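[Discussion] Sanity-checking designs against the backbone

I'm trying to build intuition for which residues belong where. Below is a structure token string of 70 positions. I'd appreciate it if someone posts a full sequence so I can compare it with mine line by line.
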């Protein structure tokens, strides 16, 4: 059964992710490293509302990223 749910992400969250992701580079060769972030929030009348962006401890490369948190 498909659920039709809306998702609301505040505009400010997108540039914050892009800022962190664009500066995430390998110190050895300056190659881009994939970046992982979680959107946190709550449900309000059928809409998922994102309120926070969390960057967990992570290990990555140019093609892979893995959450190192617990």
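Best answer:
Here's mine. Compare freely.
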């Amino acid at each position: 059964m498909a659920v039709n749910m809306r998702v609301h992400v505040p505009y400010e969250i997108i540039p914050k992710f892009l800022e962190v992701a664009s500066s995430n580079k390998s110190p050895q060769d300056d190659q881009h490293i994939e970046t992982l972030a979680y959107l946190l929030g709550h449900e309000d009348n059928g809409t998922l509302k994102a309120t926070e962006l969390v960057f967990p401890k992570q290990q990555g490369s140019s093609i892979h990223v893995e959450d190192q948190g617990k």
